[in-house]
Amino acid sequence: MKMPRLLLVIIFVLSIVIAGLGIFPALALTTTPTPINPPSAMQTDSAVFIRSYRVDVEITNQIARTRIEQVFVNEGTRNAEGTYIFPLPLGVTVSDLVMRIDGQPYSARILEKEEAKQVYTDIVRQMRDPALLEYIGTNAIQANVFPIPPGGQRTLEIEYSQLLPVEQGLVHYVYPLRTDHVSHLPVGSLSIRVRVESNDPISSVYSPTHNVAVDRRGDKEFVAGFETTNTHETNDFSLYYGLASDEVNLNFLTYRESATEDGFFMALIAPPVQVDESRVIAKDVIVVLDQSGSMDGVKWEQARDAAQFVLENLNPADRFNVVVFSTGIKPFATRLQDSSESQEASQWLDTLIAEGGTNIDEALRTALEMNDKEHQVVILFLTDGLPTEGIVDLPAILDNVSARAADNVRFFTFGVGDDVNTFLLDEISQQFHGASAYVRPGEDINESVSTLYRKISAPVLTDLNLEFDGVMVYDVYPPLDQLPDLFIGSQLMVTGRYRREEENVTLRLSGKLEDESQGFTYENLSWRSNAGGDVLIPRLWATRRIGELLNMIRLQGESPELVDSIVRLSIRYGIITPYTSFIITEQDIFTQQDVAQASAMMQPTAVALALTPSGASAVNAAQQAGGMSQVALAPTMAPNTVYLVSTPPPTASPAQSATLSAHFGTPAPMTPTRAGTLAAGPQLTLPPSTPSPVALDPAGGVPASTVRSAGDRTFVWRDGVWIDTTYDPDEMTPRRIEFLSDEYFELLDQDERIAEYLALGDHVIFLLDDQAYEIVPQD
């Protein structure tokens, strides 16, 4: 589904009286200028910006009432007035339209899509700016806009109603939130609040575009929303919620980019919002807590508080124990205790101080030997160091854990600081269906542990198994043999690919409630090209796959096949990591030879990933790979945003240097770099866990490139041209069409899918049905 973005097209007329003559030259101030200059320098001279932006949505049984309040401020020295155009989401039919300016009713009308298209193309011809073209195919709201005096402000309010579509049991609401076309100035404050009431129980609540907070008010009502300040929004707001039909509900979306490619799917699995206390599975919780001398001070206080939080929040039927370790092992009790004894354990923790070495193998052995297999066992393992006592060899520790741990064990690991073995923590948590978290220096240990424990405190279904009958699926994440347990208040997202469209597909979900098997069947499902899905699903899947591949390199070792897959996915979907930052450098990435060279560039970094288990770089890598493999927000690239890669020169250990030299020869000496450029040579000190988006000052002169998504394609900026990453200049000869020519608009009329491509600028290369096109600037 194409998601049109917010465009408040205000064509301001600057009222200028020159020599007593009424001369009113029109100046477009809201759309991003055609990117003829480098993207980092694209700015508009508009003095009008949005100081406050509030969206309040009430949805009752799929009828959505949207209320918008925008406060526009004119910081210029002349009056600003013009026409207000608000493109509506694709396919939306609006009713009960109300518009007010400064509290007074104001006349507005709805433009049907053909009339809106004519308005859009007329403005494009007049302003020589194609940005509006991406909204072709949508309806719009239009009004003649009030004058805003110099230094003044106007409050604009819009209300409209719409019937929301339901696909595969998911209701979908879209609000065209994007604000980057309005002004180069950020929105002062922005908030969205969505309240939903339904006659039917609601299962999953999910936004692929924004990190929303969700307040569940029973099983038939929730409130979701977010707030931010000083923002340039580059995504529309999208929210899905599922209508529950089973005790454990499953909803899914599919998307296929073309008939010649395999499709993508996303499934959301959610337990009931409210369950009887008797349905919550009793568990055994064992806290394994590092008490070594390096934990002394604030770290020990926070770790102890975290353990006490867990003890205070046990369910009545739970059992527990605490194993504190340093040079030796100090268990609170020799066997599991009833939850009623938790206060005594908490008081015992208050008597302990941090001292001694780190005997990880003995601590894990002690905890695992307490498992009597009556309940599911949750082990919370927290350490800030490397093993220094007892068995210290990583493979030996992992072998011992694998030999001692039964199928009912779940490991959740916490690495405190940077001097931890990330390979050990990640391997244990992955093998035993848990999760790993890293608490960086200065962060609160208690907050990290308590946040995770709240999510896993009430399991309702364990040992999950998901089967697909009637459709071929592959590259599923999380892998089907590593599905986590289901907990009250949580939902599981599964993404993957499927071979071909099918009808009457059956999905079977099974698991355990205590020792009793439970099964749920979802029948007569239709896997069509775009069953409610949109272009964000492929990017979401690709991000998870890249994270999984990075983890495979870290934990299993580098291979050319894994590196090549990461490079190709990064190029195709525009997913930038510190390890694939070649996408934003000036080198070409379009031919098969270019891709091979990019893969070769990443090989040293891949080797470094597999050689670096501890230290800040290793924790950065673990956090990024883990975060990407579990990501729920689809990445999109903001226009006018560049991702800087600024990495200090690496310091390799003698052993690492020898290994790298064996692979690649002796690296050239490192030279100082500045932001926006890449140093040459293998990088052993891995970059930060996530790249930071930085909007560059147009006068800053920092060399950088951009990546931008348009529809289901990724474009990169090279030498003044936006180029589709599926274009191969060695294999394709583009058909050249002049910007704003009759042929240009004829092509747009033939296939409106390209509107988002054309909206990028006056020099664009893209593919359409295996034919390459090059839009070239007018002479």
Radius of gyration: 28 Å
- List how many beta strands DSSP finds: 41
Portion in beta strands: 25-35%
Main sheet characteristics: 8 strands, mixed
Give me the side-by-side strand order of the main sheet: 8-7-11-5-4-14-17-16
Average pLDDT figure? 77
- Quaternary structure classification: single chain
- Based on CA inertia axes, which overall geometry fits? globular
Helicity range of the residues? 10-25%
SS field, number of helical segments? 14
Per CATH, what is the topology of the largest domain? Immunoglobulin-like
Just give the CATH class of the largest domain.
Mainly Beta
CA(first)-CA(last) distance: 36 Å
Low-confidence stretches: 1-45, 636-705
Q: Specify the structural class.
A: alpha+beta
List the helices and strands and how they pair.
Blueprint: E1 9-10, E2 16-18, E3 21-23, E4 48-60, E5 63-74, E6 80-87, E7 95-101, E8 104-105, E9 109-111, H1 113-127, E10 140-148, E11 153-163, E12 166-167, E13 170-175, E14 187-197, E15 202-206, E16 213-216, E17 221-231, E18 237-243, E19 249-255, E20 263-270, E21 283-290, H2 298-312, E22 319-325, E23 329-331, E24 337-338, H3 342-350, H4 360-369, E25 376-383, H5 394-404, E26 409-416, H6 422-431, E27 435-439, H7 445-456, E28 459-469, E29 473-477, E30 486-487, E31 492-498, E32 502-513, E33 516-527, H8 536-556, H9 560-573, H10 592-611, H11 616-629, E34 642-643, H12 654-664, E35 693-694, E36 707-710, E37 713-718, E38 721-724, E39 735-738, H13 742-750, H14 755-758, E40 764-768, E41 771-776
Parallel strand pairs: 4-14, 21-22, 21-25, 25-26, 26-27, 38-40, 39-41
Antiparallel strand pairs: 1-6, 2-3, 4-5, 5-11, 6-10, 7-8, 7-11, 9-10, 12-13, 13-18, 14-17, 15-18, 16-17, 19-20, 20-31, 22-23, 22-24, 28-30, 28-32, 29-31, 32-33, 34-35, 36-37, 37-38, 40-41
Helix pairs in contact: 2-3, 2-7, 4-5, 5-6, 8-9, 8-10, 8-11, 9-10, 10-12
